[in-house]
Design a protein that fits this description.
Low-confidence stretches: none
Structural class: alpha/beta
Distance between the termini: 29 Å
Shape: globular
Radius of gyration: 14 Å
Mean pLDDT: 95
Length: 153
């Protein structure tokens, strides 16, 4: 998958969150959005990253920034993950992977010398007008939330 570039229009989406409520990008118009993709609910790296956003949530709110997580897990798996971790932001389920692909976050990965298809650890900051403001192609799960906050200034 090709990453989107700064200035590109962010593809709209309408997907269920962990509570089965549909969430669309359009509904965040006038806010910045941090959209972060993760490979699988409840895996260690993503849990750490998600906890970072949870712990910094108030600081993002102060800056009028919404946090949205996304993976190809089912709503039920997202719910188990979010309930266990007390995530107060939407974590969306894109089982068709159409949205993940539209953000370039799906493609060939290598692990232990074998190739397989999967989700890339990408994050995007989307501005108030729905354009890509910042691209993170390398994510440090432990500090990602702080790294994003620093970028927001």
């Amino acid at each position: 998958g090709l990453m989107l570039n700064v200035g590109d229009k962010a593809p709209d989406f309408n997907l269920p969150d962990q509570n089965g409520n549909n969430v669309s990008l359009k509904s965040f118009s006038g806010k910045k959005v941090v959209l972060w993709f993760f490979t699988k609910a409840s895996t260690p790296g993503w849990t750490t990253e998600g906890q970072g956003f949870r712990d910094e949530f108030k600081n993002f709110e102060k800056k009028n920034v919404a946090i949205i997580g996304m993976s190809a897990d089912s709503v039920q798996r997202q719910k188990n993950f979010c309930d266990k971790q007390n995530f107060s932001y939407p974590v969306l389920s894109d089982e068709s992977k159409n949205v993940i692909k539209s953000y370039g976050a799906w493609g060939l990965k290598k692990m232990y010398g074998r190739e397989y298809e999967g989700i890339y650890r990408y994050s995007y900051i989307i501005d108030e007008n729905g354009l890509i403001e910042k691209v993170f192609s390398k994510v440090t799960t432990k500090t990602h939330a702080q790294d994003v906050l620093a970028e927001l200034g």
